[in-house]
């Protein structure tokens, strides 16, 4: 070693630099190329050249969009273990993003309905689309999982403005907090203001010209008005988008729960309150209509959003029912399928890279493929034990 150092000192500087460069290049080339990844982290630039590859969502985006929920719990736990949030670029998402890029926003909003088997990746597809909405400077109106409102309500109160309806004030205030966090910087920049004066009680009202952010803060501070304020916010966003002041992206996971009869909301005498008598239901059905422009509506329908034994099909016509289908018609159905063979290989390579799966033989990998039927959620559950 001493002799090598002495010889190296006698080598001219330019030769030594070349030697160091060759050594460094050899060391880098020895590292395996991660073909399952892409360095493009902006969904606005995703195209077919990024198909079947993982992209890393920046931590700032995760904190902005998903701080208050939106990622499936099992996937969120996995990202905590992996110390990164990576999403697979899939065909259904590219289809929706391509349509959003080519949309004529001066016309009534287009509706996109994602459907597929349980665990096929509909919620993560919405996460990818939400990231696109953030990067393309759209106001996000996001409901992570509608069913939670009807199965796990935190508080139920009779509506003071709509006879026979019921409010979910704590859930509504939590939604306003999420909306404000996701859109704070854009709302501050756009400085959207109310077009009308709204009265909440004899003594409390919000005058015309008040910034929308102040309206949101009122709903968070005075939760008994939260449901009514969400309705006003929805109407004002429609008015602002029609006027060309902003663009709005509505993303709702489990939309068919708004139209079902599956509920655990109980009031006096243990009487059940169905979704059609909840004020939040009316608001989010209304924003999914096509009576406004400069926006888009992306929804999912899911069998587990409504526990109904009669709904054995995954297709929108059956999950939405007659009322929901007529509300959304026309819409573009987007089928989210199980992994293709190429997607499965990319996911397994990612799991190996993250040391989630180790020392697996080709035969073992083939067995995983058959056991999971390439279903993303089933594959996640099966590999958890490895």
What does this structure look like?
The protein contains 15 helices and 11 strands. With 386 residues, the chain is α/β, with parallel strands linked by helices. The protein has a 5-stranded parallel β-sheet with strand order 4-9-10-3-11, sandwiched between helices. The protein has a two-stranded antiparallel ribbon with strand order 1-2. Helix 10 runs parallel beside helix 11 (279-287) and helix 14 (362-372) packs across helix 15. The radius of gyration is 25 Å and the shape is globular. The protein starts with a helix and ends with a helix.
Strand content: 5-15%
Helix percent band: 40-55%
Shape: globular
Q: Helical segment tally?
A: 15
Integer average pLDDT:
89
Strand order of the largest sheet: 4-9-10-3-11
Write down the Rg: 25 Å
What structural class should be given to the helix and strand makeup? alpha/beta
Pick out the low-confidence regions.
1-30
The total beta strand count reads 11
Question: Sheet with the most strands?
Answer: 5 strands, parallel
What is the N-to-C succession of helices and strands? HHEHHEHEHEHEEHEEHHEHEHEHHH
Distance N to C terminus: 44 Å
Quick synopsis:
With 386 residues, this protein is α/β, with parallel strands linked by helices.
């Amino acid at each position: 070693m001493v002799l090598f150092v002495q010889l190296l000192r006698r080598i001219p500087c330019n030769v030594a630099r070349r030697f160091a460069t060759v050594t460094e290049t050899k060391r880098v080339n020895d590292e395996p190329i991660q073909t399952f990844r892409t360095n493009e982290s902006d969904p606005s630039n995703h195209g077919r050249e990024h198909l079947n590859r993982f992209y890393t969502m920046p931590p700032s985006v995760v904190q902005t969009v998903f701080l208050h929920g939106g990622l499936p719990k099992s996937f969120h736990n996995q990202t905590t273990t992996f110390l990164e949030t990576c999403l697979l670029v899939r065909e259904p998402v590219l289809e929706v993003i391509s349509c959003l890029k080519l949309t004529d926003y001066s016309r009534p909003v287009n509706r996109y309905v994602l459907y597929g088997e349980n665990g096929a990746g509909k919620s993560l597809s919405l996460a990818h689309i939400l990231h696109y909405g953030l990067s393309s400077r759209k106001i996000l109106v996001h409901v992570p999982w509608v069913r939670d409102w009807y199965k796990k309500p935190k508080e139920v109160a009779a509506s003071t403005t709509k006879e026979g309806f019921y409010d979910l004030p704590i859930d509504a205030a939590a939604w306003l907090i999420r909306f404000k966090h996701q859109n704070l910087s854009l709302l501050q920049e756009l400085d959207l203001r109310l077009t009308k004066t709204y009265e909440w009680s004899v003594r409390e009202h919000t005058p015309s010209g008040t910034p929308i952010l102040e309206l949101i803060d009122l709903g968070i501070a005075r939760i008994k008005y939260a449901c009514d304020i969400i309705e006003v916010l929805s109407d004002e966003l429609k008015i602002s988008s029609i006027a060309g002041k902003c663009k709005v992206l509505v993303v709702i996971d489990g939309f068919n729960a708004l139209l079902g009869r599956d509920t655990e909301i109980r009031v006096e005498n243990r009487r059940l309150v169905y979704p059609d008598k909840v004020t939040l239901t009316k608001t989010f059905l209304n924003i999914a209509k096509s009576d406004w422009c400069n926006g888009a509506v992306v929804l999912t329908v899911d069998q587990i959003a409504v526990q109904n034994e009669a709904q054995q099909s995954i297709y929108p016509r059956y999950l939405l029912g007659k009322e929901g289908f007529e509300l959304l018609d026309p819409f573009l159905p987007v089928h989210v399928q199980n992994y293709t063979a190429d997607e499965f290989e990319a996911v397994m390579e990612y799991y190996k890279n993250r040391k989630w799966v180790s020392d697996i033989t080709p035969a073992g990998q083939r067995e995983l493929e058959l056991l999971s039927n390439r279903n993303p959620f089933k594959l996640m559950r099966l590999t958890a034990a490895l």
